Each structure stands twice: as C-alpha cells, then as structure tokens.
Amino acid sequence: MPIVDPRTGAPLTSSESQSSQGESIDPSRYIVDVDMSNFQQMVLEGSLEIPVVLDCWAPWCEPCKNLMPILEKLAMEYAGAFVLAKLNIEDNQQIAAQLGIRSVPDVKLIMQGQLYDQFQGALPERQIREWLAKYLEAPAEASASPEEQAEAALAAGDAATAKAIYQELIQAYPDYPDYQIGLASALVGEGQGDQAREILDNLPPEHRDGAKARGVRARIEFGEEAPGREELAALEGRDDSEARFKRALRQVADGDYENGLEGLLALLRQDRGYGDDIARKTLLRVFDALGADHPLTVAYRRKLFALLY
Asked: Any transmembrane segments, and where (predicted)?
C-alpha cells in the first residue's frame, strides 16, 4: 500500500518513505487538518490510497483535548500506515452535519472511501491500539519507544535520564497528560517531591485524580513519611513492630517495592493491630502507587487476601 503525503495527497517517493522511519519525523506527513477546501481530497479520495482516521473534535470539548494527543502519537508511531485527519466541527458544521456528528469526540476509520468503523468518546490508548489493530498492521518494534525508555530508566533507578526523556516528550506533545505524570514520577525519583506535586496539581481534573497521578502522589507521601538515614540507623538491631514498619516504609520510598511489601505483609501477619492496622492500609497505598496491573500488586493482593480471609 503506497504512503501518501497528507499535505498534497501525492504518494511519497521511496526515499521519502524511508526517511520517514528515521529519528526526525515531520508530523505533517501523517497528520493534517481538514475543512471544506480539502476534505474530499484528503479523506474521501485519500482513503483510496491509505486508511484515514478522522478525528471530529471541538475547541470546547475537554475529552477531545485528551484524545487528540494520543491519536497524534499513534499516527507518528504508525509512520504512514494511516493518516490522521482532524476536523473541527465548530468551523465545519456542514461537514459535521453530513457525517451525522451528534457528539464529540467522534473518531471514524475511512478506507476505500467508505466508513469501516468508528468510536465515540476519549478511549484509553490501549483500547485505541486494539481498535486500530483490527484493521491495520501494527508498526514494527525495532527499538523501544521514548516512553518505554523512560519507564525502563525509572525502573533502573535512573531518574535523571527518565526526566530528560519526559521533558523532550512534553515539548513534542505538551497536551498529553501521561507525559506530565511521567515527569512528576521522575522528579520524585530525584527527591523533588514539591515540584512533582505542583505538576500533578496543574493537571486536568480527570487526570489529576486518576490512578496514575494518585500513584505518584503516594510515592511523594511515602518519601515524606519514611524515616531518614539517621533514624533508620537508630533502628538497627530492633525487631519490634515499629522498627519493622519503618524499615518497610523506607524500602517502599526508595522504590524497593518487593521487599517493602514483604515486610508489611510479615508485620500484618505478626501484629495486625499495630498502628490501627497501618500495615494493611499501607499495603493498599502501595498497590495504588504501583497501579492495579503491576505484577507486584497482583501477587501481593492475592497474598493479602489469603492472609485476611
């Protein structure tokens, strides 16, 4: 299937197509604004050559603002497997009426001049990937994406590298909240909890209160609550409930989640009444910090359930 240039509708040459796979990708190759002047050419005629994902949005639509950066990111990642055409329905009400748009965001897949599929609302990125995968070949994964590199750096304790990557991603996609949350997470890793909290506080409400942001907030709080090195040294040799709890809290704050979770579970097993059931409550907070799908959350939820019931 030939790759077309969405600016002109003309097929890319072989050299142009190959260069689009390099590090520096021109977004205008794969992302285009459409209106009455180019809708026929870009969407209807263009879809005869390459699938078109039509994103119908409006300036007043908050979910649209959350969805668009995800679609733009995927358009760049797919690098020519589809063109993302963005239609502002406020400025193009005639087209919106012809398309039967009743609410936004409304995303349509146009292939061979026909509507193949559509969805309404701001779906999570995972579901959009699944939706695209039904019709389009997924991009080759020759190397890890910048986001994956940042996550790997954080997992390895290299917060500085993760911060640098997220800062570059935010420059390219300033309206994508997950990158803001990623930067906040990296700042926590550098011990800059106040700056991380400020970033989280400025997120749109649906992201500020979402699971990812809550997880980063929990890490900030763990860092503030955990004993410092001097206090930790003073606990050396003690094996009472207070010492066990504080050591586990320090491990969690340092990102040593597995040992921290194991310590909290052991404390819960030995002295559930300590601190008004604080070991169990802290376990739940760690699950929140890690996220529901994290392998440690899944494993230790099971252990906690087995212990309690």
From this structure: none
